[in-house]
Amino acid sequence: MRSPFDLTGRRAVVTGAGRGLGSAIAVGLAQAGADLVLLGRRESQAATRDQIADLGRGVEVVDLDVGDHDAIGRVAAEVNRDRQVDILINNAGVIDRENSVDVSQESWNRVLDVNLTGLFFLCQAFGRPMTERGQGKIVNIASLLSFQGGIRVASYAAGKHGVAGVTKALANEWAGLGVQVNAIAPGYMVTDNTTALRADADRSRSIVERIPAGRWGDASDISGAAVFLSSAAADYVNGHVLVVDGGWMAR
Ligand SMILES: NC(=O)c1ccc[n+]([C@@H]2O[C@H](COP(=O)([O-])OP(=O)(O)OC[C@H]3O[C@@H](n4cnc5c(N)ncnc54)[C@H](O)[C@@H]3O)[C@@H](O)[C@H]2O)c1
């Protein structure tokens, strides 16, 4: 009997899978049986592509700058043309750490363009055939800053609050059409996104002291949640933001 977590025969698109959480998620989905389309900067995806190919899964790399909103519709149409996309993981994201009084319009727009607007139009472009077919899973990568304000990251907090909002709004529209839209809110994970925090010894110590698990998260800590929300096991889970944070939000 097939496990409800089995993704064999499913095709998943993952954005920004070249490193960090996106790479761990893509490999986790492949381990669960999925074939992958890695959407992002081609030169940065080779290591993840090779890991997935070594697992014996199908894997393609497609160029896309998620901040280029005109390109999203064009590239998604190419991917959708002769492939059925069953799962979309919106993982690509950027962060600018600055005092709010110093944030430029350029920096604000760059963060929102990738983290929120690009994410929404990817949901739209891949969600349309899913809703027409009556089947699909979308998992958006949110953040603890979908719930909290953070420190010196106003644009990021605004975007990630928006990701939670878009996730719930789309879930309301698409749950009845057979498409589950959910999000994962990772806690403090060891990736390039948090290099500056980990380089600040005082900040890093205060973060770990607040995490009940007593450690930073590893990228692989996210994979199980991504497999679950991408699988039949989550067919009745809609509009949920699943926190994977070593207990941070429980404090
Ligand atoms: N690391 C954490 O503690 C943490 C916590 C909460 C949420 N997140 C979120 O997880 C996601 C992954 O981040 P990460 O921690 O792995 O950081 P990361 O910086 O290592 O990875 C970000 C990925 O996004 C890609 N990317 C960035 N801009 C892009 C663009 N314009 N077009 C295409 N791809 C682009 C990068 O190439 C990279 O692969 C992000 O959405 C981030 O906000 C991370």
Measured on Cα atoms, how large is the radius of gyration?
A: 17 Å
Q: What is the CATH topology?
A: Rossmann fold
Number of helices: 8
Bound molecules: nicotinamide-adenine-dinucleotide
CATH superfamily: NAD(P)-binding Rossmann-like Domain
Mind summarizing the main beta sheet?
7 strands, parallel
Catalogue the unreliable spans.
none
The CA-CA distance between the termini, in Å, is 40 Å
Percent helix, as a range, is: 40-55%
CATH class: Alpha Beta
- Total domain count: 1
Biggest sheet, spatial arrangement of strands: 3-2-1-4-5-6-7
Second CATH tier, the architecture: 3-Layer(aba) Sandwich
- What fraction strand? 15-25%
From the spread of the alpha carbons, the general shape counts as globular
What is the SS-derived class?
alpha/beta
> Secondary-structure element sequence?
EHEHEHEHEHEHHHE
Tell me what the structure shows.
The protein is α/β, with parallel strands linked by helices. It has a single domain, classed as Rossmann fold, CATH 3.40.50.720. Helix content is about 45%, strand content about 15%. The chain is built from eight helices and seven strands; from the N terminus they run E-H-E-H-E-H-E-H-E-H-E-H-H-H-E. It has a seven-stranded parallel beta sheet with strand order 3-2-1-4-5-6-7, with helices on both faces. Helix 3 runs parallel beside helix 4 and helix 4 runs parallel beside helix 5. The longest helix is centred in the middle third of the chain and has 29 residues, at about 105-135. The mean pLDDT is about 95. Nicotinamide-adenine-dinucleotide binds near residues 64 and 114. The site of nicotinamide-adenine-dinucleotide has 28 residues, from helix 1.
